[in-house]
Amino acid sequence: MLTPRYALLLLRYLRRRLLTVAGWRWSTDGPLFLGRRLELQIGRRGAIRFGRFVWIGNGSKIRCHEGEVVIGRKTVLGQECTISAYKRVRIGEQCVIADRAMFIDFDHGVVEVERSIREQGIYKRDVEVGSNVWIGYGACILRGVRVGDNSIVGTNSVVTRDVPANAVVAGVPARIIRMRETPRELRWPDPVEPDHDAPTTLPPPSTPSEAEIA
């Protein structure tokens, strides 16, 4: 049954889909829910793909200057989140993303001190977030980071290195607090499982030495 609330959401979706420039340029494989004051920007060489039943909260901004933004089915973005992409930002299925989280796949060049930062261009690397990931309020996922399936990112964390699947991370910069139990049966399409031994992946939490315990 179509309730008044869902009727309003449907009208908002149709208005953005049919009456805005960006609406003709993004794609979806099913219905999705778009909040108020949403800002969608898609450059000429950019594309945004939504899975079915994605929810984008009020005041969020998705800017695909070029490249691609992909948000998997049943993922929920809270209010005032930001996605800014020049290459590729992918978020998997059934993620829960709190308000004001940020995903950005580029950095500004700062090496040449005799030139303004604005003139030094940008560095780009894919950002990839797995499925069933919970990202806390105000967390930042930066250029080149992969966040593994079933992981948790704490409030206001700044993630600069890959997060293993099933990890709980927090801090600035983020570090692993603990590991969750690996699911026995739960599996996701296109799994994200960064290599635990790679130098770009966060190391496991350290265990106290015998001297520290004593």
Give a structural overview.
This protein has 2 helices and 20 strands. It has helices at residues 4-19, 210-213, and strands at 27-28, 33-34, 39-50, 55-56, 61-71, 76-77, 82-85, 88-91, 96-97, 102-104, 106-108, 122-124, 127-129, 134-135, 140-141, 146-147, 152-153, 158-159, 167-170, 175-179. Helices cover 9% and strands 34% of the residues. β19 (167-170) and β20 form a beta hairpin. By secondary structure, it is mainly β. The strands form 3 sheets. Strands 1, 3, 5, 7, 8, 10, 13, 15, 16 and 18 form a 10-stranded parallel sheet that branches. Mean pLDDT is 91; it is low at 209-214. The relative contact order is 0.10.
- Assign the structural class, choosing from mainly alpha, mainly beta, alpha/beta, alpha+beta, or little secondary structure: mainly beta
Name the CATH homologous superfamily: Hexapeptide repeat proteins
**Number of strand elements:** 20
Overall structural domain count: 1
Task: Indicate the overall shape.
Answer: globular
Cα gyration radius (Å):
19 Å
- Sheet with the most strands? 10 strands, parallel
Low-confidence spans: pLDDT under 50, at least 5 residues?
Answer: 209-214
CATH fold category name: UDP N-Acetylglucosamine Acyltransferase, domain 1
The helix/strand order is HEEEEEEEEEEEEEEEEEEEEH
* Percentage of residues in DSSP E strands: 25-35%
